[in-house]
Amino acid sequence: QVMLVESGGGLVQPGGSLRLSCTASHFTLDYYAIGWFRQAPGKEREGVSCISSSDGSTYYADSVKGRFTISRDNAKNTVYLQMNSLEPEDPGVYLCATGCDDSEYAIWGQGTQVTVSS
Prior knowledge:
There is one protein chain. The protein is an all-beta fold. The protein has strands at 3-7, 10-12, 18-25, 34-39, 46-51, 58-60, 68-73, 78-83, 92-98, 112-116. A six-stranded mixed β-sheet has the order 2-10-9-4-5-6, with no helix packed on it. Strand 5 (46-51) and strand 6 form a beta hairpin.
């Protein structure tokens, strides 16, 4: 069964850092753009970042620009999201998916919880 598995979430203080991982199972990530999305309570799911399959070009939402960095390691079949300077507005369930659009046709992971609290 093809799937994406996220890991790396947790509880962190404001200003802290986390690195999320998105690993593909039973398929190769090389040919896919991979997006990170977050779902906060009471809010619509939003795209946070995305990385292309071809030239590694990246996209960031304005709210995370300069704080988050997306990268990929095709040898490990994994995409990472390095999150620095975490803010109280950043918590939620972070999900990765194939593609940069919020699409029902994408392969989605189950998500990993990020909590920012002092």
